[in-house]
Design goal:
alpha/beta; TIM Barrel
Length: 284
């Protein structure tokens, strides 16, 4: 029996197995693949379309579009620039048979994306902005509520917790309650502990080990570990050489209950998860 699903924008994502969210960064400065599709000189729509189709053919279940880097130390992008990066691409992809997510922390961008047909708003600020909460509540889209300590520009300066698992769980519970109070149905909400967003390596590992404890009201957990600094810290690998570690991290997350993994390397991750699904997970 399917215990969880995610509803958004008229689409339903069933979660009988771990689903894969493919990353399409439309930025010049994202930590892993910034500038891949162009930059401030313009985005190559054809290249993005080709990559989106390749991700779907490889088994991606969601496409996540981002027009502003939220890597540690990243500068803020103004609304007009983020809209110019995201909306034309969203419009060019909305005929695809998939759930499309827009990764933004700006209510104006979220509203424009929702009007253009996106199915999920991926908010790294966890709906703390009342305008963002209102924008999502007024739509029928899904939302990913993420934990972040601080802001991207400074979040890795000196992240500190007394009990990282309890504090992240408490934040997710509080923001989930706020979303529900605003009228967002529970089947439209997923939760993300925010690996690398105001966390040290020790914090990230503690959260990964305790992933089952972070589930709130049975809602799906989304995990983003792909190519992140923690993989480099553990392996010594440069950003462009972190695929093996990222795949292992995705598999570990899946064994600990992650419902969705956000990844750059879709085909390789899908293959690894297929093997895991065939073998099964011993939950005793």
């Amino acid at each position: 029996m399917i215990s969880r699903c995610l509803e958004g924008g008229g689409r339903t994502l069933t979660l009988e197995r771990t689903r894969v969210m493919g990353v399409l960064n439309l930025t010049p400065d994202s930590f892993s693949d910034g500038g891949r599709f162009g930059g401030d000189g313009g985005i190559d729509t054809g290249r993005v379309r080709a990559e989106a189709e390749a991700m779907l053919a490889a088994g991606a279940d969601i496409l996540d579009l981002g027009g502003e880097s939220t890597r540690p130390g990243a500068a803020t992008v103004d609304v007009a620039e983020e809209l110019a990066r995201v909306i034309p691409i969203l419009e060019s992809l909305r005929d695809l048979d998939t759930m499309i997510s827009v990764d933004t922390r700006k209510p104006d961008v979220a509203r424009a994306a929702l009007a253009a047909g996106c199915h999920l708003i991926n908010d790294v600020c966890g709906l703390r902005d009342p305008d963002m909460l209102e924008a999502v509540a007024e739509s029928d889209a899904a939302v990913c509520v993420m934990h972040m300590q601080g802001e991207p520009g400074s979040m890795q300066s000196n992240p500190s917790y007394v009990d990282v698992v309890a504090e992240v769980r408490g934040f997710l519970e509080q923001r989930y309650a706020a979303a529900r109070a605003a009228g967002i149905r529970k089947d439209r909400i997923c939760l993300d502990p925010g690996f690398g967003f105001g966390k040290t390596l020790a914090h990230n590992l503690a959260l990964l080990k305790a992933l089952p404890a972070l589930r709130t009201d049975g809602r799906p957990i989304l995990v983003g570990l792909s190519r992140k600094r923690m993989i480099g810290d553990l392996t010594g690998a440069a950003v462009d050489a972190r695929m093996p570690g990222s795949i292992v991290a995705a598999v570990i997350a899946a064994t600990r209950g992650a419902d969705i993994v956000r990844v750059h390397d879709v085909a390789e991750t899908v293959q690894a998860l297929s093997v895991l699904e065939a073998v099964g997970v011993d939950e005793t």
